């Protein structure tokens, strides 16, 4: 239990450090008011905005106000999205709250990551098991080759190649965008390539370890079917490294989504990050990075805790 | 492994006999023969050697200058003969520049970013990791807390943000990679140093009064090189992939420097009419990463005492 608390406190500290870093780095790139109104703004308008946004206060005051607002779920307003009359002393009238923009984009990214993981986990585990059950066979070689290709390929390039083949040449699937089930196939496949490879590799090596252990020999001597030994006994024992890898890949999926969403014009948080970076929309950048970092840290935390629940050896070791 | 002079001077040969007898079984020639016999690894090594040659000698080996415009020969498909009888092996782009030559110059940028990033992060990570593992105490706690924290951040996202603040470009890219990738080396080396702390050869060196830094860098480091080399090779591949991604998004190498990721980004606009502009740079990245992975697997296998025998004798 003490471990859980320590781990959670660490994660919160890490997030605090991240948003502080993003805040300070954001101030390094230049005058936020100028960024917001553009180079054509008059001095009067700039000054008005600075006063309204509190940009004339000492940096430490701005920092604590920023953190305080974050804790209340207020990430500020966007420089670019939802403009109304400018300049205004009422900040809420300038742009849409960034937190609303970010939350609006999250479901699309979650859907993409879920479909990709839903493809990658069963495929990767089955491939790894098939390879380990028939070591040095043709299946084993094929699985190793596919896995190696999956980890060596550039994700966004694979996406482009899939577009050329299935959307441009064959015309079976749309080139991008968000809509019915056909839209999710290509981006999810692109995103799944690498996790399929990693999961197949780790499953293969974990299963090879397990299948050489004495309990497998015992099972065979007892006359259990090979399928029962492989899936009910060995795979359960090999689950710990596989789950750890799946967790790793889940957080990689969230960041990998940045490129895949860009290629397929998938309106998720990855595309939002790229758009906000290219428009220098600082509040939106800060909010989207904070949200993705929080998600990744949360996933890592959950995987770490799940790992301890799944593996009695570690759990008991901690307790005793 | 040669006998440690500081040990033989006082007549101690702890572990030396064992190391020598193991060494005697396989010579350099055995390793070389094993590479040649293993066709796929051999192909990978040949590819990497050619890649290195082309990166270093781009000026001599590239048939055309990378920025040589020739508007008469725009968008020619691979294998086309240009207006003045010029032969374009992989075709030309929208400005009539030879794709093959640009790939060669791009190799120099992409590969050197990967290698330099891996060298700096490896040096940082191994130094901190070995000392943390061997010294222990508060120092180890602080370093490992930092490693755990940084490892749980999404590195591509942090890289994007930092490059957005600092601006892209070759040097910044290497800087960012070094700061964001040393942790994996640190974690690995710390584990290796922890294992080595109780090894006989380290105890012997300690008994002889060797300083802590001498033990870490002269005794432990040479003995744990193999896994570090494997990770180093894999990291080069990962960094080349990351460079391509960041440059593709416009936050990495800046034009007119040719980089494989940038070339894919440029070719993307013509993906319907000129498939070769996107296909070949991506293929180059894929083959490079694949070769590095294969070589890493091979190094891992031959340096593992259990697997080495099978690989070197072909059984």
Count of DSSP H/I helices of chain B? 15
The CATH architecture designation of the largest domain in chain A is Orthogonal Bundle
**What is the tally of beta strands of chain B?**
2
Low-confidence stretches of chain A: 82-93
Radius of gyration of chain B: 24 Å
Number of E-state strands of chain A: 0
Question: CATH H level of the largest domain in chain A: which superfamily?
Answer: MetI-like
Q: Major β-sheet of chain B, in short?
A: 2 strands, antiparallel
Which ranges of chain B are low-confidence, i.e. pLDDT below 50, for 5 or more consecutive residues?
A: 1-24
Briefly note the CATH topology name of the largest domain in chain A: MetI-like fold
Helix content of chain B: over 70%
Overall form of chain B = globular
CATH class category name of the largest domain in chain A: Mainly Alpha
Class of secondary structure makeup of chain A:
mainly alpha
Walk me through the structure.
The complex is a heterodimer of chains A (320) and B (315). By secondary structure, chain A is mostly helical. Chain A folds into 2 domains: 13-98, no CATH class; 110-315, MetI-like fold. Chain A contains 14 helices and no strands. Chain B is an all-alpha fold and 315 residues long. Chain B contains 15 helices and 2 strands. A two-stranded antiparallel ribbon of chain B has the order 1-2. In chain B, β1 (80-81) and β2 (87-88) form a beta hairpin. In chain B, α6 (99-135) runs antiparallel to α7 (137-151). Chain A binds chain B through residues 10-11, 13-14, 17-18, 22, 25-26, 28-29, 148-149, 151-158, 160-161, 163-164, 168, 251, 254-256, 258-259, 262, 273-274, 277-278, 285, 289, 292-293, 296-297, 300, and chain B through 145, 148-149, 152-157, 160-162, 164-165, 237, 241, 244-245, 248-251, 261, 264, 268, 271-272, 275, 278-279, 281-282, 285-286, 289-290, 293-294.
């Amino acid at each position: 239990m003490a471990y859980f608390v320590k781990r959670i406190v660490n994660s919160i500290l890490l997030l605090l450090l991240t948003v502080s870093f993003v805040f300070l780095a954001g101030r390094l790139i230049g005058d936020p008011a100028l960024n917001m109104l553009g180079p054509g703004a008059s001095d009067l308008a700039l000054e008005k905005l600075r006063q309204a946004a509190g940009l004339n206060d000492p940096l430490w005051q701005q920092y604590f106000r920023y953190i305080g607002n974050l804790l209340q779920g207020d990430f500020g307003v966007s420089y670019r999205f939802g403009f109304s009359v400018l300049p205004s002393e009422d900040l809420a009238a300038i742009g849409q709250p960034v937190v609303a923009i970010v939350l609006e984009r999250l479901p699309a990214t979650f859907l993409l990551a879920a479909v990709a993981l839903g493809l990658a986990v069963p495929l990767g585990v089955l491939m790894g098991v098939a390879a380990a059950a028939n070591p040095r066979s043709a299946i084993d070689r094929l699985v190793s080759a596919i896995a190696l290709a999956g980890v060596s390929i550039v994700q966004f390039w694979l996406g482009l190649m899939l577009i050329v083949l299935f959307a441009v040449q064959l015309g079976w699937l749309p080139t991008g965008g968000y809509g019915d089930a056909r839209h999710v196939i290509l981006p999810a496949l692109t995103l799944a390539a690498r996790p399929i490879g990693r999961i197949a590799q780790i499953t293969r090596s974990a299963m090879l370890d397990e299948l050489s252990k004495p309990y497998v020999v015992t099972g065979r001597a007892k006359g259990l079917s090979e399928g029962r030994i492989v899936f009910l006994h060995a795979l359960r024992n090999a689950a710990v490294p596989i789950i750890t890898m799946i967790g790793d890949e889940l957080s990689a999926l969230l960041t990998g989504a940045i490129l895949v969403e860009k290629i397929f014009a998938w309106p998720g948080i990855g595309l939002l990050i790229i758009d906000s970076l290219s428009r220098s929309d600082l509040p939106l950048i800060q909010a989207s990075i904070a949200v993705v970092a929080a998600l990744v840290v949360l996933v890592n935390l959950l995987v770490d805790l799940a790992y301890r629940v799944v593996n009695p050896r570690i759990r008991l070791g901690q307790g005793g | 492994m040669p006998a440690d002079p500081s040990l033989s001077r006082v007549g101690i040969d702890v572990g030396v006999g064992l190391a020598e007898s193991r060494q005697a079984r396989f010579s350099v020639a055995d390793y070389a023969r094993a590479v040649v016999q293993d066709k796929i690894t051999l192909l990978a090594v040949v590819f990497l050697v050619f890649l290195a040659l082309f990166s270093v000698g781009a000026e001599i080996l590239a048939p055309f200058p990378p920025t040589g415009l020739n508007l008469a020969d725009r968008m020619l498909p691979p294998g086309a003969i240009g207006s003045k009888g010029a032969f374009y092996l992989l075709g030309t782009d929208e400005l009539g520049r030879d794709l093959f030559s640009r790939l060669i110059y791009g190799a120099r940028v992409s590969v050197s970013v990967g290698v330099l990033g891996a060298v700096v992060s490896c040096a940082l990570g191994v130094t901190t990791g070995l000392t943390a593992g061997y010294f222990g105490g508060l120092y180890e706690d602080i370093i490992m807390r930092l490693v755990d924290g940084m490892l749980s951040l999404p590195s591509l996202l942090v890289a994007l943000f930092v490059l957005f603040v600092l601006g892209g470009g070759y040097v910044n890219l290497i800087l960012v990679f070094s700061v964001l990738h040393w942790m994996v080396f640190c974690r690995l080396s710390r584990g290796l140093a922890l294992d080595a702390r109780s090894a006989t050869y380290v105890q012997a060196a300690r008994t002889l009064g060797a300083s802590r830094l001498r033990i870490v860098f002269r005794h432990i480091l040479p003995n744990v090189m193999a896994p570090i080399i494997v990770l180093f090779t894999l990291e080069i591949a990962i960094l080349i992939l990351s460079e391509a991604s960041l440059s593709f998004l416009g936050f990495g190498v800046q034009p007119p420097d040719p980089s494989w990721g940038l070339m894919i980004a440029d070719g993307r606009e013509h993906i319907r009419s000129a498939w070769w502009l996107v296909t070949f740079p991506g293929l180059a990245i894929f083959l490079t990463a694949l070769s590095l992975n294969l070589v890493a697997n091979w190094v891992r296998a031959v340096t593992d005492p259990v697997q080495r025998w099978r690989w070197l004798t072909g059984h």
